[in-house]
Specification:
Length: about 70
């Protein structure tokens, strides 16, 4: 009995080939990457701006209203 072997990419090499094919052929992958980048940049901008704002004097627990919490 003789086994014929074909040049099929398996293992890590095949997984990388499959993922690169999926990355370049599926439109939603690029949309997801772009939207995730926008969200990360917006979130870091908000945090960076909040970190550089002057801090207000903290209220005492008795003087804080419910609307100040939200």
């Amino acid at each position: 009995m003789t086994y014929q072997t074909t040049d099929r990419h398996g293992g890590l090499r095949g997984a990388i080939a499959a993922e690169s094919t999926k990355l370049f052929s599926v439109r939603s992958t690029w949309a997801g990457l772009i939207s995730a980048t926008v969200v990360v940049l917006a979130f870091s901008g908000v945090l960076g701006t909040a970190a550089h704002q002057p801090q207000q004097r903290p209220l005492s627990a008795a003087g804080m209203s419910v609307s100040a919490v939200f």
